[in-house]
Design goal:
This protein is mainly alpha-helical and 177 residues long. Helix content is 80%, strand content 0%. The chain contains 2 helices and no strands. It is rod-shaped and about 120 Å long.
């Protein structure tokens, strides 16, 4: 019974299938990262909108209050000064809150960048490791197949007939004349 021969085309097809599977796994991982990023972006957008919605009525209320008190500035200058201090304090609080939100967003973006960088570095290392793990056995298999082929071919060749030794003396088996 003869062993089936694996030709280059079959070997290339097997390698192509392995590479395609690796690319499919990588695509699935990238898709998962995309969905996580999209969810995080939606969450950040919603939080920024909440802060904006909370700050805008306060700013509008302050603006209307200043406009309403403008005609009475001469008679109630102390009241306007107190209101101005209150508006400044609220504006400082809003600015501090906005600065805090921006700082947190930057920190989260930095963390996300570090996480993604580490993830892609790990994926790169894993891809190299998988490639090494696949290439080494394939090289060994190729060497084994080549050795098996050489053995089979050497067994298939006919053994040459022994030459007659009529010209040789009985003790001259090593000498050639």
């Amino acid at each position: 019974m003869t062993m089936p021969k694996i030709d280059n085309q079959t070997l290339e097809l097997a390698l192509f299938i392995l590479v395609a599977l690796a690319m499919l796994v990588q695509a699935i991982a990238l898709l998962a990262v995309f969905f996580v990023m999209r969810k995080a972006a939606k969450s950040m957008t919603r939080r920024v909108e909440e802060v904006h919605a909370a700050a805008l009525p306060l700013i509008e209320t302050s603006r209307h209050l200043v406009i309403k008190l403008a005609p009475r500035i001469d008679s109630a200058s102390e009241d306007v000064a107190a209101i101005a201090r209150s508006v400044r304090a609220k504006t400082a609080e809003i600015e501090t809150a906005a600065d805090d939100i921006v700082a947190r967003a930057r920190a989260q973006a930095g963390r996300l960048d570090a996480i993604l960088t580490n993830f892609f570095d790990a994926m790169d290392r894993a891809g190299g490791f998988v490639a090494d793990c696949i290439n080494k056995p394939i090289r060994q298999l190729s060497a084994l197949l080549a050795a098996a082929k050489a053995v089979v071919e050497s067994l298939q060749t006919a053994v040459p007939a022994p030459r007659s030794r009529t010209n040789h003396a009985p003790g001259d088996s090593d000498m050639f004349i």
